[in-house]
Amino acid sequence: MYFLNRLQIGSLLNAARTSALSFQRAFESSRISRTKMSSTGLPHFSVGKIVKGFGRGSKELGIPTANFPTEVVQNLPPEIGTGIYYGWASVDRGDVHKMVMSIGWNPFFQNTQKSMETHIIHKYPGDLYGLELRVVILGFLRPEADFTSIEDLIAEIKGDIENAKKCLDEPEMAAYKTHTFFTDPASNTLG
User: Fold this and answer.
1) pTM of the prediction?
2) pLDDT digits (tens, 9 = 90+) for 121-175
3) Is 133 in contact with 89 (CB distance < 8 Å)?
4) Tally of domains in the chain
5) How distant, in Å, are the alpha carbons of 1, 2, 3, 19, 27 from that of 13?
6) In this structure, are 149 and 93 located in the same domain?
7) CB-count exposure of residue 106 (10 Å: 0-12, 13-18, 19+)
8) How far is 9 from 20, CA to CA, in rounded Å?
9) Which of the residues 38, 44, 148, 169 could staple to 137 if both were Cys, CB 3.0 to 4.6 A apart?
């Protein structure tokens, strides 16, 4: 049998706390690195007219979304699974802004139709229905999740927005803001 005195126990606990904190920081750093362009199928470029969604983004959540039509959603490559993504977006070839996008069925609302809901991190003066939406999806933030309350869902989305902003500030991601997909009038695809 081996016995430890208080000093030894304290030293072990401090070492464990330091190791846990170091592990957490290393995990967070590697998680962000892993979620960037390493995701299969990324970057992905999509373009389509903005359609009316489920009407929850602005009304229930206070987080407006621009939604792609069904045909754009159906043309997603199979490598891009459901979840929360980040990238850049432009409406009607205007300024390019950071965005966060939900791809999937939104378990909290139990959707039966898969959707691509883009929250553009910019305030627009009115509805965007019928305007052209261009996005480049650059990275994966997290899988879809169900929540116990609307408040928990809103808090998670706000966290996603902050994480997306940080990721898009990195030079590798920021470079896509001026991609020809957004700037070349003849560009309809990656081209």
Assistant:
1) 0.75
2) 999 988 899 999 999 999 999 998 888 888 998 999 999 999 999 999 999 999 9
3) yes
4) 2
5) 20, 17, 15, 10, 21
6) yes
7) buried
8) 16
9) 44
